[in-house]
Amino acid sequence: MVLNKFYVDELIKRALLEDINYVDVTTDYLIPEDQQGEGRFMAKADGVVCGTQVAARVFELLDSDVQITFLKKDGEKVSYGDDIMRLSGKTAALLKGERTALNLIQHMSAIATAADRYSEIVKGTNASIADTRKTIPGLRPLQKYAVMCGGAKNHRYNLSDAAMLKDNHIDAAGGITAAITKLRSKLGHMTKIEVETRNFDELREALEAGADIIMLDNMSPETMKEAVAITAGRAVLEASGGITEETLRAVAESGVDIISIGALTHSVKAFDISMYIK
């Protein structure tokens, strides 16, 4: 996955405008415009780094002459004390970009680290870890990129990617069969249909109606194992809802194909990275 440069630049510009507005009263009144400085980003935890190019772009937009040396690449594991990248350029630009760059790389690295941890837990099973649409508005491309850097997979990117029938859709449409039948009459051949199910009756109905993917919502690992047997390969099975690190391995061993975890993007704690300037 390659991040769209136009999107990245617009996001960073909005973030810088939010932070600086029209003047940095500390830096602009304190640091000579032509003063040169050096900076380095250092990991203060063990994990997977992500967002190096995004963080670097913050400084490039502030100082077109900034020089950047990357010591770690996105998706690479880091340990406490590792330098991630080094910068040299106008001291004022380094100071102005510090917080915006750290906010982005810390958040993206936190997601990549969580994705890596979850993927390790399910290693050796048939299951893959996936994200959800529970993302921060405006940051979805960065968050989904970070998920992939951590070794997990992306669920649908947005509502245009696939038809996903959740309980409210099903109730509003008059049931699973009615909903799938209506969608099939209108969708193109490239668009898949996923159905959320809460019990075996709904699972069987979704199978009979020809769902491509079936979500097993808030089921126990034991129930999921039985659902895998009922499905017998006729649809892709996705486990979701209430899955924790403690239950993740058992869910994976039930035989499901995908385990989607919203916490990958909506509940991560920032990965600790510091920037030092001299």
Mean pLDDT: 97
Q: Name the overall outline.
A: elongated
The profile of the biggest β sheet is:
6 strands, parallel
Share of helix, binned: 40-55%
The span between the termini is 35 Å
- Annotation, overall tally of beta strands: 12
Reading the helices and strands in chain order gives HHEEHEEEHEHEHHEHEHEHEHE
Describe this structure in words.
There is one protein chain. This protein has 278 residues and is of the alpha/beta class. It has 11 helices and 12 strands. The chain is elongated and about 70 Å long. The two termini are 35 Å apart. The model has no long low-confidence stretch (mean pLDDT 97).
Give a quick precis of the structure.
Helix content is 44%, strand content 19%. It is of the alpha/beta class and 278 residues long.
What labels would you give this structure?
278 residues, alpha/beta, six-stranded parallel beta sheet, 11 helices, 12 strands, 19% strand, elongated
Present the secondary structure layout.
Layout: H1 5-20, H2 27-30, E1 36-43, E2 47-48, H3 52-62, E3 67-70, E4 77-78, E5 83-90, H4 91-121, E6 128-130, H5 140-149, E7 163-165, H6 167-173, H7 176-184, E8 193-197, H8 200-209, E9 213-217, H9 221-231, E10 236-240, H10 245-253, E11 258-260, H11 263-266, E12 273-277
Parallel strand pairs: 6-11, 7-8, 8-9, 9-10, 10-11
Antiparallel strand pairs: 1-5, 1-12, 2-4, 3-5
Helix pairs in contact: 1-3, 3-4, 4-5, 7-8, 9-10
